[in-house]
UniProtKB/TrEMBL annotation:
SMART domains: PlsC. GO terms for molecular function: 1-acylglycerol-3-phosphate O-acyltransferase activity. The HXXXXD motif is essential for acyltransferase activity and may constitute the binding site for the phosphate moiety of the glycerol-3-phosphate. This is 1-acyl-sn-glycerol-3-phosphate acyltransferase. Pathway: Lipid metabolism; Phospholipid metabolism; CDP-diacylglycerol biosynthesis; CDP-diacylglycerol from sn-glycerol 3-phosphate: step 2/3. Keywords: Acyltransferase, Lipid biosynthesis, Lipid metabolism, Phospholipid biosynthesis, Phospholipid metabolism, Transferase.
Length: 251
């Protein structure tokens, strides 16, 4: 019953937030800070509706690290509501072209200055990547990318695609890894307290002086660091849950 109520409220919230975000986008189209503001519109009420607690372990430099390429693991559609809480200023996202057909959300995603890529058309995808490289170099704006290319559904970090790393090298900007704990497996929307999500930023990885030949090694470095970070956060949450259960049994 609680799950159904939450889904109804989330559906209503998604439409209201989308309408407000679309209005914002129409008032100042393609402003790169629209993305952050719209993300907050979706995320802040949603965390209360879903009953999720956020533990954001962000470095002090994260809000001011631009321009950079932010890479993050991608678990589910709920990522919008979880990660929307921490999107830094002047940060736009890369998404698939089909998003533009989602009512309200697709239109505001475009008006917020985000980049839509047609993955089925390599030439158009390449042009979009060139556009984002120019944005990184000249517009004081960061790019948020899910390098797995699809949702991993909490089954572990998938292999990374090259695009984000190619962009960072061509623009000469650092890569900032962001890790999210595996909340999809533990989230229970039939409880008032659905669970805790940890988000942790890792130290920036410079790309100055690197070339395309360095991409495989760069990918391996980022993937390994993020995998270790996610495992550490998952272990932290398991320890916290075990401590609560032990305390409850003792009382």
């Amino acid at each position: 019953m609680l799950f159904v109520l939450r889904m109804l409220l989330m559906g209503l919230h998604f439409l209201v937030a989308g309408a407000l975000g679309l209005l914002l986008g129409l008032c100042r189209p393609f402003n790169p800070d629209n993305s952050r503001l719209c993300a907050r519109l979706y995320a802040l009420p949603a965390m209360g509706i879903l009953g999720l607690r956020l533990n954001a372990q962000l470095s002090p430099q994260f809000e001011h690290a631009r321009p950079c390429v932010i890479i993050c693991n991608h678990q589910s559609n709920y990522d919008l509501f979880v990660l929307g809480n921490i999107v830094p200023p002047r940060t736009v996202c890369i998404g698939k072209k089909s998003l533009k057909w989602v009512p309200f959300f697709g239109q505001l995603f475009w008006l917020a200055g985000n980049v839509l890529i047609d993955r089925g058309n390599p030439q158009r995808a390449r042009r979009a990547i060139l556009q984002t490289t120019e944005t990184l170099q000249h517009k004081d704006t960061s790019i948020w990318v899910f390098p797995e290319g699809t949702r991993n559904k909490g089954q572990g970090l998938l292999a990374f695609k090259r695009g984000a790393f190619q962009m960072a090298i061509e623009a000469g900007v650092p890569i900032v890894p962001v890790c999210v704990s595996t909340y999809v497996r533990s989230m229970n929307l039939n409880r008032w307290d659905s669970g805790e999500v940890i988000i942790r930023t890792l130290p920036a990885i410079p790309t100055a002086g690197l070339t395309s030949e360095d991409i495989p090694q760069l990918i391996a470095r980022c993937h390994g660091q993020m995998q270790a970070g996610i495992a550490s956060m998952d272990a932290q949450l398991r320890g916290f849950t075990a401590a609560i259960q032990t305390d409850a049994e003792q009382h």
